[in-house]
Specification:
single chain; 366 residues; alpha/beta; four-stranded parallel β-sheet; two-stranded antiparallel sheet; 41% helix; globular; binds 2-acetamido-2-deoxy-beta-D-glucopyranose
Length: 366
Amino acid sequence: MEMEAKTKPWLVLSLFLLAANCMQQCVHGKPRVSCLFIFGDSFSDNGNNNNRATNAKSNYSPYGIDFSRGPTGRFTNGQTEADITAARLGFRNSIPPYANTSGSDIMEGVNYASAASGIRPETGSQRICIPILTHATTQGDIISLEEQIQNHRDIYNRVVKKLGGSNKAKKYLSKCLYYMRTGTNDYYGNYFLPQVFSTSRDFTTDQYAQDLVRRYSRYLKTLHDKYGARKFLVFDLGRIGCTPYARATYARSRRCAEEVNDAALTFDRNLKSELERLNTNNLSADAKFMFVNTTTKLDTDPTSLGFTVVDTPCCPTQLNLSCIENGRPCRNRDQYVHWDGIHQTQAANEITADTTTDAINCLLIS
Ligand SMILES: *[C@@H]1O[C@H](CO)[C@@H](O)[C@H](O)[C@H]1NC(C)=O
Ligand SMILES: *[C@@H]1O[C@H](CO)[C@@H](O)[C@H](O)[C@H]1NC(C)=O
Ligand SMILES: *[C@@H]1O[C@H](CO)[C@@H](O)[C@H](O)[C@H]1NC(C)=O
Ligand SMILES: *[C@@H]1O[C@H](CO)[C@@H](O)[C@H](O)[C@H]1NC(C)=O
């Protein structure tokens, strides 16, 4: 009884706050942040590679089979995790790809993500052709994280013009959310691609993770220092040794490639502590870097969520990687974690988006 009496006012207060929060945020359908900028790779790409000289594209069937606009360059059957997150934040329109912002309001944000890109500038840029290793051939003209940040400078300049000055632009941009999800290709398409790159001979996994995080941190600081970014959502890599591609390519079996998982976890730990360092370093009064750990029940207990197939892609793939053009995908797409060799189905993206939404709630409250 006494416990109950003590906890009740707290409960009532938090329910009240929750309701007040929801009345402010949900009822009027206004986005909880007014702008969202997305940086990264194929997990978030929504068409930036379509007209570039690269084979890292997905603007063909069966990609987009469950998407209202069909194949768009999204690497999934329906919505990406970033699409789902944007919709949950209240954005009515999807965030436009940088490659085509015409007819869109850049004040709501831009998506710079480019498939096959990574943190290191050479990741995904190879043009050499190795028979068998299609993954290693002609990725070519993709947009590295550094170039994505240069593209953001262009958008920043447009915001400055629009609002009439850099102070006003920075003030506006400080309220936006910066969604950063990259690094997987620095492993799949660089460190674990010794036929093309020497990084695995030049660095231990620990040194490599430190190198990547040092570079990543510099890019985050650039966004903060030059373009007024303050609210950062920064994703881990998670268990990238368990994609159908990694199982087939590195473990050469149905088992997860633990060597890849271990290297990714080393990166994740380094990234997490770097973000903690940035948070305590007081870059500015309102800067906040939120680490997103994407490991969920999808990895540990997928059947409890209704997913029955975890090690096989839904679409027929070439080299266990991307969907074969016009290949016939599985019908029960809600039961597959993976759409192609690397990317999740929309159903799985919705689960990951729960984690992202929690992280955003923390980021926006604090
Ligand atoms: C660019 O985006 C607009 C608005 O979303 C769309 O109508 C148009 O088809 C797109 N153009 C290209 C070349 O993708
Ligand atoms: C992310 O979460 C998983 C599962 O809870 C955990 O094993 C892993 O250590 C976490 N990653 C980091 C960098 O803390
Ligand atoms: C960071 O700023 C906060 C509040 O402005 C202050 O309390 C804290 O001592 C500062 N920390 C460092 C390391 O300067
Ligand atoms: C990987 O590709 C090979 C050759 O196409 C195929 O035999 C194998 O079943 C695939 N493995 C997985 C896990 O999809």
